[in-house]
Amino acid sequence: MARGENIYKRKDGRWEGRYPKARREDGSLYYGYIYGKSFQSVRKRLIEKKATYAFYHTSIHQEFQGDFKDWAALWLNQLMRENLKESTYASYQNKLSHHILPAIGHLPLHRVTKEVLTGLVQEWKEILSPSSIHVVFRLVKSCLKSAKDHGYLYTNPAELVSLPKIQPKERPALTRKQQSQLVQVGQHSLTDLPILLALETGMRIGEISALKWSDIDFDQAVIHVKRTQQRIVDYTDGEQKTKLIETTPKTQRARRVIPLSSLLREQLKEAKAQANSPYVVGKKGKAVEPRTIAYRFAQLRKKIGLPNVSFHTLRHAFATRCLEVGVNIHTISALLGHASIKLTLDTYTHSRIEDQREAIEKLAVFS
């Protein structure tokens, strides 16, 4: 037995841990048990179980019996997981494992101070962009807010930390000539159909991967965006692997209807006549996953001599062409499935030299 731990080594070679599970009507405790192949694996799970009991059965404003990593595990797995999509849960777990817990996971919860978090942000500046720092730090802030709300902290130190300013980033855009090259390729190759879909609809790569023929109404000439595919980190059995999942879009606005151009409608009709999968971009009855689509695009981009841009640039090209022909920002936002108009404005209404030149020419008539 490990002293003070309530952990024993059994005769069968496994380790057994005991923790308070609940109280009977007479007030006495009854216990739950954990089994594992190693002392450390049982100890880790035992801390989480004890923390859960303390959280639900003791009064507020007392010291949390565990480190930050123990509270983070309780917060994510007991308090948050039910309300999180699988992809969001995996994203949170990945950020905690890679950027947060290695630095502050060992600290007692009450020792995670403003100074500690400020130092952590300084470390992140060496490896993460300002926007990524904001995303990761939001997780720390939410985790500590929950600890404060439940009485384990009197203040949330994350609220006092200054983060680096996010500078607007110029996004690479395809010229009309480059886009025309890609359209010509997409028109004559089923393998490159995702390129045409992205350029003509602005759909995300995961939405294209998950698109089914049943989502396309050829009579009404519209696409119904209902789902997305993505590869997420999977920590099942303590091993870091990845798996492909199909899920609903991230926000309600991402579930949308997109009109089909006559060009894309005819191309899709031809593709459907040759299809052997319920997925528009499919193979042997299954969807072609996003990273395969991205790889194919990268190979094609090199072949025809386009600059080093990602598949997501095609979505940006769609938005840019919409702006160029005068489509209003509300319509562009709806077509892209953005969560808000502000996101569209922040992302796509950066000044272009063509717009600036046109503005100068218009002003010249008053000179």
Q: Which terms summarize this structure?
A:
367 residues, alpha+beta, DNA polymerase, domain 1, hpI Integrase, Chain A, three-stranded antiparallel beta sheet, 14 helices, 48% helix, globular
CATH C-level of the largest domain: Mainly Alpha
Report the uncertain regions: none
Principal-axes geometry comes out as: globular
Provide the β-strand percentage band.
5-15%
> Could you tell me how far the N terminus lies from the C terminus, measured between alpha carbons in angstroms?
91 Å
Which class best fits the helix and strand makeup?
alpha+beta
The CATH superfamily of the largest domain is known as Intergrase catalytic core
Q: Roughly what is the average pLDDT, rounded to an integer?
A: 86
Strand elements, count: 10
Q: What is the annotated CATH architecture of the largest domain?
A: Orthogonal Bundle
Number of domains: 3
In sequence order, what are the helices and strands, one letter per element?
EEEHHHHHHHHEEEEEHEEHHHHH
Helix coverage percent of residues?
Answer: 40-55%
Determine Rg (CA atoms, Å). 26 Å
Plain-language structure description:
The protein is an alpha+beta fold and 367 residues long. The chain has 14 helices and ten strands. The strands form four sheets. Strands 1-2-3 form a three-stranded antiparallel beta sheet. It has a three-stranded antiparallel beta sheet with strand order 4-5-8, with no helix packed on it. The chain has a two-stranded antiparallel ribbon with strand order 6-7. It is globular. The mean pLDDT is 86.
